[in-house]
Amino acid sequence: MARVRRIVNLSDYRSALAGNDEILIGASVRRRRRRQVAISLSGVALIAAAVWLYWALAQPSAEAPPNSYPVKVMCIACKAVETRRVRPGDSFPLICSFCQQRGAKALVVCRDCREEFVPTGEGEMIRCPRCGGTRVGSAASQPVRGGRPGE
After folding, report:
1. Following CA atoms 135, 136, 142, 146 in sequence, which dihedral angle do they give, to the nearest 10 degrees?
2. Which of 30, 58, 117, 144 has the most Cβ atoms closer than 10 angstroms to its Cβ?
3. Residues 6+ positions from 116 with CB-CB distance below 8 Å
4. Residues 56, 48: Cα–Cα separation, whole Å
5. What angle do CA 129, 76, 142 make, to 5 degrees?
6. pLDDT for 9-55, tens place per residue?
7. pLDDT tens across 119-147, in order?
8. Where are the domains of the chain?
């Protein structure tokens, strides 16, 4: 059987659009592409708004970081005493929360006479200025009751 050839007129595009395998041309392609870009941009804007809202409404953490420890500090400038939570990497002197100067140094307590003081020398053996004892520790920790063992 002989196959009948159909003559396709190139100016008639309706026959090309009639089937399921639709060919998109010109303005239709641009319209579809703009719609895809608009949907994508609105999705990105929605995600950015959600991240900003989460960040803006997040409550500041009231609890201390898990690796921090209490330190009783005294500011050299204003003589204010407070207990702060410090991380292991923090460097002394800290910024005073009263006068905003970097002068808050760690207080130590003598276990013999209970005197609280700021150590003077760096890298030396810490001695109590009142009794000269070397049994000193952090002023934030609880002192040992009864002084020395056996008392």
Report:
1. 20
2. 117
3. 72, 107, 108, 109, 110, 139
4. 12
5. 60
6. 666 666 656 555 556 677 778 888 999 999 999 999 999 999 999 98
7. 887 777 888 888 888 888 877 765 444 44
8. 14-57, 69-138
| Residue 127: both structure tokens together | 């001695």
Which residue in this structure is represented by tokens 């702060």? 84
Q: In terms of Cα–Cα distance, which of 67, 66, 71, 95 is closest to 82?
A: 71
Is pTM beyond 0.85? Reply is no
In the predicted model, what is the mean pLDDT of the chain? 79
The residue among 116, 95, 113 whose CA lies nearest residue 105 is 95
Phi and psi at residue 86, in whole multiples of 5°?
A: -125, 140
**pLDDT value, residue 4:** 72
Residue with tokens 């130590």: 108
CA 136 – CA 46 distance, rounded (Å): 58
